[in-house]
Amino acid sequence: MKYLIIGAGGAGGLIGGFLARSNFDVTLVARGKHLAAIQEKGLIINRYNKEKITIPNVKAVSQTGLGQERFAIVFVCVKAYSIKEIIPVLEKVADAQTIIIPILNSMETGNILRAALPSKSICDGCIYITGYVSAPGEITQNNQIFRIVYGFANQSKANYPILKTLESDLRISNIEVQYSSDIFSQIFKKLAFTSAFASVGGYYHVKAKAIQQIPAYREVFIRLLRELEQIGRAANYTTSAEIVENNTAILDHLTGEFTTSFQKDLAANKPDEREELIFAMVRLAQKYQVPAPTYLKIAKHFGYIG
């Protein structure tokens, strides 16, 4: 079965690297110096446990380097602000049987793609992983968790027999995988941590250690989680107090130097995901008439106009 990974950053590079290491047929779509290094030396993965993996002869191409080949599974791993740019690529590489799995920091990616590509089989998904491009051709994985959650909303996995093979291949490659027909709840729960942490870290320009140890920053993080919890209940994404409890636990297990890609993009003056991580939460709060003053304050700081 042929896999295409569009975006070879922290998430896509690790998915593609783990699958390629297990000898599955994988093609990575990358660009610039990162692409050149993978083509020349293979893909290097620095794991959380200090293990260094070199995967030689990884197939890697640019978007324009894709030929007429079609793929069984396409993972979309670009930043959310780039999603519309890859629609022509998906049109080209996917046929009626292809399953397209976006795993971005966004609640709306699947809806955007389905509207643009109504004849394609596009589900929704998210990923639990912390990794980043640490050098051209090199991905660093920060911790052990590596899990993909995906699904077609309100549909049984049995409707798509190919998914059995997909899940087997991922597990063989040491990637946890979970199918959910309640996928939007799963994405919301996953985004809760990323959104709250990115909001605090970006607003105050701090890393995990400061949010863990300085009461003022930690309190803002918890206030954001409480607002998300209320939004989640109003939208029927969650019915429990798990968002605050679970995500403060995640915070306390991070290395002190951890930051989100949103913070890295801010520091580098690059395009960022404020729309998906911060503004979208304010819009959800407004949609369900839930007060979210802390989110609104931070959103306005980043240019939100509601």
TrEMBL record:
Domain Ketopantoate reductase N-terminal, residue spans: 3-151
Pathway info: Cofactor biosynthesis; (R)-pantothenate biosynthesis; (R)-pantoate from 3-methyl-2-oxobutanoate: step 2/2
GO cellular component: cytoplasm
Domain of life of the native organism: Bacteria
Lineage: Bacteria, Pseudomonadati, Bacteroidota, Cytophagia, Cytophagales
Catalytic activity: (R)-pantoate + NADP(+) = 2-dehydropantoate + NADPH + H(+)
Family label: Belongs to the ketopantoate reductase family.
NCBIfam families membership: apbA_panE
Catalytic activity, EC: 1.1.1.169
A biological process from GO: pantothenate biosynthetic process
A single MF term (Gene Ontology): 2-dehydropantoate 2-reductase activity
Name this protein carries in UniProt: 2-dehydropantoate 2-reductase
Domain Ketopantoate reductase C-terminal: 183-298
